[in-house]
Amino acid sequence: MDKLIIDGGVRLKGSVEVSGAKNAALPILAATLLADEKSVIKNVPTSLLDVITMVKIIRYLGAKVEVQGNTITVEPKGYKGCTAPYKFVSTMRASICLLGPLLGKQKYAEVSFPGGCVIGPRPVDLHLKGIKALGAKVKIYGGYIIADGRNLRGSHVYLGGHFGSSVLATANVMMAATLTKGRTIIENAACEPEVVDLAHFLKQMGAKIEGESTHKIEIEGVKKLAGAEHMLIADRIETGTYMIGAAITDGDIVIKKANPNHCIALIDKLREAGVSITFGKNEIHVRKTRSLKPVDVTTLPYPGFPTDMQAQFMSLMCVTKGISVITEKIYPERFMHLSELNRMGANIILEGPTAIVKGVKNLSGAPLMASDLRASAALVLAGLAGKGKSEVLRVYHLDRGYEDMEKKLSRLGAKIWREKE
After folding, report:
1. Above 90 in pLDDT, residue 269?
2. Backbone dihedral angles phi then psi of residue 348, each to the nearest 5 degrees
3. Which of 82, 97, 117, 191 is catalytic?
4. Distance from C-alpha of 266 to C-alpha of 263, rounded to nearest angstrom
């Protein structure tokens, strides 16, 4: 396994390009299986482990996949597979999004219960509720979700969950419904940019979808879908991570190929903290021009503050004078990074789903153990701000969601490199 070595205390300066959105790439790649012809997906972060895994699954199912640079071409014609096996799915939760396309196209699916990051319980109940509402017969056997979709029909589906709407459950129902006779209405649908991007791709394929970007999506089933060419949106979480990178290092960076409209909640909180943020054409200029002040944050479904930025924002508050309160309402147990930050000298107390952060003057470098994808990014950011050297272990988590992170940070002046553990 690899580790990252960071010699902290260097101010980030320069420009960085963000990659295509991983969380848009995975369901869109799965959606190519709905078509009768090949699709071409551009701006794909093809070096990410999650994308590599999705390509392996699609090939396992029998479709032809060609990867050239950041473009993936999928030729689904003639694929017969209906099973997404444990050996692939166990490493990536987003592989659950194959359930909808397989049901819609093949009318049958066997998908292993998903794995991925350890950030607390993330049940698949809304996925099952959604496809059952469409008429699928579902059973759980041997660690697999087995769904028979021969009697699918358009239906009224409510996807409200204990912690709000579900992005991937919305994606699954929407994909299955595109080839299901009748009209499907998804109430309390997720409206994240990644869901909207998926809807745009499906519409290019010939799907009839209305209401994407709202909490009510309507789909009129069609008999078949064609292939399409699509450019993925920018990764808003990578964008946000580099924004915090500028703030936490007293930096001055321009983030290119970014969409600020997808980062409004984070931008609002960073400005409230005192960070200077301005916009150009497809770019965001982030500078720390004065001392920061503490800000309280509560994670919420989009357009609220994203749970995927909670850990990174906590790293920033660790070195911001005063007391901030960070409440996690999406995954209440998503605080694995807290103990590692405290080992660097941070002062954080956890009370249920709320972290109380008392800012300290400096963090100190330390050996750090990454527990999940976004926690890994938070530890890297803390290492950049810390005094002395830090080692971030288990960076395979980071490689699931950030393309060439150490190289991009190095070009901004960071002293960071990769070694074998």
Report:
1. yes
2. -125, 130
3. 117
4. 6
126 is in an annotated binding site: yes
- Distance (Å, whole) CA 21 – CA 308: 13
Is 308 marked within a binding site?
yes
Residue type, 364: S
From-to residues of CATH 3.65.10.10 in the chain: 2-19+234-420, 22-231
SS3 sequence of 368-412: EECCCHHHHHHHHHHHHHCECEEEEECCHHHHCCCCCHHHHHHHC
277 is in an annotated binding site: no
82 in active site = no
pLDDT tens by residue, 199-233: 999 999 999 999 999 999 999 999 999 999 999 99
Q: What is the CATH number of domain 22-231?
A: 3.65.10.10
Q: pLDDT digit string (tens) for 120-152? A: 444 688 999 999 999 999 999 998 999 999 999
Burial status of residue 392 (CB atoms within 10 A of its CB: 0-12, 13-18, 19 or more) = buried
Domain 2-19+234-420 has CATH 3.65.10.10: yes
Predicted pLDDT at 276? 98
* Angle, in degrees to the nearest 10, between helices 310-318 and 236-248: 0
